[in-house]
Amino acid sequence: MLSRLLCSKLLTHKRSLLYVFPPEIRFIFRRSDLNGTTFEHLFNTSRLIHSSGLHQEIAISSPNSSNQDSHAVSYLINSCGLSADAAISVSKKVHFRTLEGPNSVLALLRNHGFTKSQVAQFVKSDEKIFAAMRNARWAFQTDYTTFLVPKIAFFREHGVPDSCIALLLTNHPPAMMRRYDQFSEALVEVKEMGFDPSKSVFVLAVHALLKRGIWNRCQQAYGKWGWSKNDILLAFRKHPQCMNLSEKKISKVMDFLVNKMGWQSTAIARSSSGILFSLEKRIIPRCSVIKVLSLKGLIKKNLSLLTVLQAPEKSFLENFVIKYKEEVPQLLGVYRGTVDALEA
Fold it and tell me: Which residues, if any, are the signal sequence (predicted)?
């Protein structure tokens, strides 16, 4: 009864709670009215499907496997409510080892109020549904009233809006499965650092601090480039994800920006989001263009890192490549990596 009471209280923010599941699992819950009883039944139904191994009775076929015979198509039409075309399509993607498993899954869904059309939609999404159940195993093996409810409540007590809680659940759901003491300590520490709880960056900072081992390695990596603790804190406040990178990533990006581009190491701390971009796909192509233009005196040399890296692709091309095609015909080649910056 306590579980049902807590579940009912969650209804004021049920949309946020749903984000703990992959998109394919959220579909199941959104097809219901989500009253307290139904929500609890659906959650437990999904856990039962997963824990019982019933989803393993339906195996995803490889692209090279042969089509199933007409019996499988007939089963999908008659038992699952699929149209003929949909049944043929699904039969090419899955293989029923036995009918016992699929029948049990269908019975569970129907017993918990799923209509024929909802069951059909579930089955049509089978490949993603069952893959999601395997990949999100932790979501079905824990008690959400124990792990999620207290943390969502703690977030709210500190002024974090539902939209930000949903962001964390969507992008970093395992963070909500940490021990409550670790979770609360990280949240309080982030608040003491001066982060605004009403902003999305707050929950990203909480997520970063929960990975304390990675945080410490990042701190050491930046320290090798002369960053002080204040520089690191400044970078973290600008973009918390800069403290969630590999040492190799930090080293390669800093080496390019400092040694090849000539940017001051500590100045990069003020533009820490730039470190997150792909070195090969964005940083090197764009910075190479800027280097050519700077050497030729076509642009000022004190452009900020964010001006260079954050601009949308179309905007960057228009302002730094197409604009100077007469003066530097090979600039597009530099951008594409087919021409060396020193040869342009």
Answer: none
